[in-house]
Amino acid sequence: MTDCLPNSTLVLGGARSGKSRFAENLVTASGLERHYIATGRAWDEEMQARIDQHKADRGSSWTTHEEPLALAERLAAIDGAGRAILIDCLTLWLTNLMMEGRDTALQAAALAAWLPQAKARLVIVSNEVGLGIVPENRMAREFRDHAGRLHQMIAAKAGEVYFIAAGLPLKMKG
């Protein structure tokens, strides 16, 4: 595939599958300067505790950038040779876009269009949400559909794609 980005990896998996740890290990093993783009928002105390724990687990060897909405712009601002950038995660970013009433298709296309310009090693994490039952409400169905389309766009460009289940990686591409 000519449009494939060999220096990028998409890591998909369910909740608590081990995908973030796997992605962090990929970045650490690269030996490059480590940057982490956190897309999550603390909507409540429990989420804030999760964010704080993830940050503590990574330690001081990572530079953390919190970016809930302007993902392509933040990537462009911190991109550079000699760096590895981990984005965690696309589905939280998608949630933020939907909660703000943003055009998710436009934002996803902007992100996918920016990726070929990357000089940094990119590792992108996202939750696979399309393996369960059909959600009972419209917003949840729209979220699932947006996530599926976004994953297809990013997977088409990524040099590698992994699916993580029970902490075990399955290499799907690359």
Automatic annotation (TrEMBL):
UniProt pathway annotation: Cofactor biosynthesis; adenosylcobalamin biosynthesis; adenosylcobalamin from cob(II)yrinate a,c-diamide: step 6/7; Cofactor biosynthesis; adenosylcobalamin biosynthesis; adenosylcobalamin from cob(II)yrinate a,c-diamide: step 5/7
EC number: 2.7.1.156, 2.7.7.62
Classification via Gene3D superfamilies: P-loop containing nucleotide triphosphate hydrolases
CDD domains recorded: CobU
Catalytic activity: adenosylcob(III)inamide + GTP = adenosylcob(III)inamide phosphate + GDP + H(+); adenosylcob(III)inamide phosphate + GTP + H(+) = adenosylcob(III)inamide-GDP + diphosphate; adenosylcob(III)inamide + ATP = adenosylcob(III)inamide phosphate + ADP + H(+)
Signal peptide: none
An example molecular function term from Gene Ontology annotations: cobinamide phosphate guanylyltransferase activity
Family, similarity comment: Belongs to the CobU/CobP family.
Free-text function comment from the UniProt entry: Catalyzes ATP-dependent phosphorylation of adenosylcobinamide and addition of GMP to adenosylcobinamide phosphate.
Protein's name in the database: Bifunctional adenosylcobalamin biosynthesis protein
